[in-house]
Sequence to fold (270 residues):
Amino acid sequence: MTRSNAGDGTAFSAPAKKALGQHFLAEQLYIDKIVGSVDPRPGDRLVEIGPGQGAITLPLLRRHGELTAIEFDRDLIEPLTHAAREIGTLHIVHSDVLKVDLTELAGGGQIRLVGNLPYNLSSPILFHALDHAGAIRDMHFMLQKEVVDRMAAGPGSKVYGRLSVMLQAYCQVTALFNVPPGAFRPPPKVDSAVVRMVPREAATLGIDNPRRLSEVVRAAFGQRRKTLRNALSTVCDSSAIEAAGLRPDARAEQIEVADFIRLANSLRNE
Ligand code: SAM
Fold:
């Protein structure tokens, strides 16, 4: 472990652990862009997933004064605590983020989530966050660009799928900017991108039964080349698809998010 007095960037360096998806952001331009996109305001409760060596943590702390960070790697806890000491109040939760009850962490309020996520856990972390959407005001995540493309895709796109529909059903999803491999140490093999997600107000969602929506979307895209009639055969019959105003011979990739919600709601009594 090497300590340095680097300005806003990493305050120390430790060997990256591949199994934990450790690719540390090193280029100041992108650190500034992330902090600028989050744009913390007084009173905000910031929670970072995977602070690593503090590339985003310390600049956010410098700007905002207080931050909670959830980090799984025991070896990073002490140096991170040390690096933050002079800058602000850093609360570190030493845990697997998937085991953290984000609603409890929000304590009745709403948190703002930030993270350059471990790419091997992107989808589980996104779905975990969705489970706690009511306690989250917004999320700014760095992910593989390919994943961000899928998250933000609309009907008709080749990459429109389960991830797009499920995330967009609950959140407004906006791809913000791309980040090249060279901005990280060590560089990942793929391009990255930063995405903003803003959970919709519970009252405006119109989702009667989240589990049923999930079941319908999973079945529809489980066999995306098939017609809805065939792909959804274990979930409902053609007449239910028609009753929801959809064509049984359409394919999942053509169906709008709102239509999936309407179809799932219409299956209430099936
Ligand atoms: N935020 C730092 C940066 O931008 O340089 C590090 C980002 S690195 C891509 C991902 C971070 O997530 C690492 O610090 C890694 O140890 C941490 N991590 C990996 N799996 C985790 C988990 N299940 N829960 C919490 N943190 C995790």
About this structure: The domain at 210-266 is CATH 1.10.8.100 (Helicase, Ruva Protein; domain 3).
